[in-house]
Write a structure and sequence with these properties.
391 residues; alpha+beta; 7-stranded antiparallel beta sheet; two-stranded antiparallel sheet
Length: 391
C-alpha cells in the first residue's frame, strides 16, 4: 500500500534513511499497480548523491534488470536540453530571446493563423500581426504545433526531417496570435529551434549537443540515434491492458512515436540513462557548471528558470520558464516556489529545487500514466519532499 505523505515543511538536509524508505514505497506501489516494468531514481543534494537505485526489469519475460545505464525515451525531458543549447548561443551573443524567427527561417514570413473546423476543414483568420520570437518558441506561446488536429495531418514525409516539418508548420499556420496565449507545443516549436540552431552554428544539431552539453557533462549514452547496442539497452515500452502489464510495440527506428530518429526532435527525441540525465540535472543545480567547464554564465542560466509567461495568460501555481515549468505559488504544496523542471510523455520526471539545493530524476517508460502530472511522478515528488529533517 502507498502511504500518504504529509505536507512538506521545507528545511535543509534530506534524511537518507527516510528518503530510501519513501522512494522504495512509491516504487513498490508502481509495481503493485502495474505501472512499470522497471524504474530508476536519483536524488542529489548539493554535490552529493543522496539516493540512487533501480528497480524491476527492462521488459516482462526473461528481461535484464534495470540499471543506471538502461536507456529510457526522454520524450519532453528533451526540451530542457534544447533550452540550454539555445541559451549557449544567447550567452555567446549569437542569438537573442527577442530575435524574430523570420530572420532565420523566411518560411514563417506572412504566416497565417488557422484552425481546423468540426468538418476537418481549415479556417483561415488571416495573417498574424505579431512576429514569432525565440522566447515564444521556448515558452509555448508561439502558436506553432499546439493543435493536435493540425499535427495529425502531418504525413510520413513531413516527419522525415526537421526541414520537412518546418515547411509543414509554416504552411499549416499558427494556432493563435504569438504571445497572446500559451498552449503546449509537443514538438513543433522545438523543431523550429533546432533548425535555427543548426543555421547559426552550421553544425549538425546532435554534434552541437555532444560538443557543448553532453561531453562537458560527461553524458555518454544520450543521443537521437542509438547504436545497434544501444537499441538493445532501451527499456521496453510498458502498457497496461485489462489491468495487466503489456509490452507496447514501438515503430522501428523511432524514439518518439512515429518520428524517425534521424529527425532530431528537439522537443522529444532523445534517449538517455538515469546516470546521464542525473549529470545534466546536477549541471542545472550548479547553475550551468560541469566538472569540465562552465557551459553557461550564471546570468544567462537564470533566464532558464525565470517565469516568462504572465499570470494573465497562465493563471496557475506553475508557469513556463524556457523549456521548463517553474513553480510560482506555495499552493503547489510538494515543491517550493522557484523549483523548475519538466516531465516526459512516457512518464519520466525531474526537478531542480534551488531552495534546498536538490536535483531529483525519475525514469520510467510507459504509455499508461505518463506525461506531466502522472501519478508516479507526483508520488516521487512527495516521497522526496517528505524526507527533509523535521524540527
Amino acid at each position: 500500500m502507498l502511504k500518504k505523505f504529509s505536507e512538506v515543511v521545507y528545511v535543509n538536509k534530506l534524511n537518507k534513511e527516510l528518503l530510501k524508505t519513501n522512494i522504495e514505497t512509491v516504487a513498490e506501489y508502481d509495481f503493485d499497480n502495474h505501472k512499470v516494468f522497471g524504474s530508476a531514481y536519483c536524488v542529489i543534494q548539493e554535490d552529493n548523491v543522496i539516493y540512487k537505485n533501480c528497480f524491476g526489469t527492462t521488459s516482462v519475460d526473461n528481461a535484464e534488470a534495470v540499471t543506471e545505464n538502461t536507456l529510457f525515451r526522454l520524450a519532453s525531458m528533451t526540451k530542457p536540453i534544447t533550452a540550454i543549447a539555445t541559451l549557449i548561443l544567447v550567452d555567446r551573443g549569437q542569438l537573442s530571446l527577442s530575435d524574430k524567427v523570420i530572420d532565420y527561417l523566411p518560411e514563417f514570413k506572412n504566416v497565417h493563423i488557422t484552425q481546423i473546423s468540426d468538418n476537418n476543414e481549415i479556417i483561415d483568420f488571416g495573417e498574424a500581426q505579431n512576429d514569432i520570437t525565440i522566447c515564444h518558441l521556448l515558452t509555448h506561446t508561439s502558436g506553432i504545433g499546439s493543435d493536435a488536429a493540425k499535427s495529425q495531418k502531418m504525413t510520413d514525409e513531413d516527419k522525415k526531417s526537421i526541414a520537412n516539418s518546418i515547411k509543414f508548420y509554416a504552411k499549416a499556420g499558427l494556432d493563435f496570435e504569438p504571445g497572446t496565449k500559451q498552449k503546449y507545443s509537443g514538438t513543433g516549436a522545438f523543431d523550429v529551434l533546432v533548425k535555427i540552431i543548426e543555421n547559426i552554428t552550421k553544425t549538425d544539431y546532435l554534434h552541437f549537443l555532444q560538443q557543448e552539453i553532453f561531453e562537458p557533462c560527461e553524458m555518454v549514452n544520450t543521443t537521437f540515434i542509438p547504436t545497434g547496442e544501444q537499441w538493445k539497452q532501451i527499456i521496453a515500452m510498458h502498457n497496461k491492458i485489462d489491468g495487466n502489464n503489456s509490452v507496447a510495440k514501438m515503430k522501428e527506428n523511432c524514439i518518439f512515436y512515429d518520428y524517425p530518429c534521424m529527425h532530431y526532435l528537439g522537443g522529444a527525441g532523445l534517449v538517455s540513462t538515469l546516470d546521464d540525465y542525473s549529470k545534466f540535472a546536477k549541471m542545472l543545480l550548479n547553475k550551468g557548471k560541469t566538472p569540465k567547464k562552465q557551459i553557461l554564465s550564471e546570468e544567462t542560466f537564470r533566464l532558464l528558470h525565470t517565469p516568462f509567461v504572465s499570470e494573465e495568460i497562465m493563471p496557475s501555481n506553475a508557469r513556463w520558464g524556457l523549456g521548463v515549468r517553474v513553480i510560482v505559488k506555495e499552493s503547489y504544496k510538494t515543491l517550493p516556489v522557484g523549483t523548475f523542471g519538466w516531465s516526459g510523455a512516457y512518464g519520466s520526471h525531474f526537478w531542480i529545487d534551488p531552495t534546498n539545493k536538490v536535483a531529483a530524476v525519475f525514469m520510467k517508460n510507459s504509455l499508461f500514466d505518463g506525461g506531466a502530472g502522472n501519478e508516479s511522478a507526483r508520488n516521487f515528488e512527495k516521497a522526496v519532499n517528505d524526507s527533509f529533517h523535521q524540527d
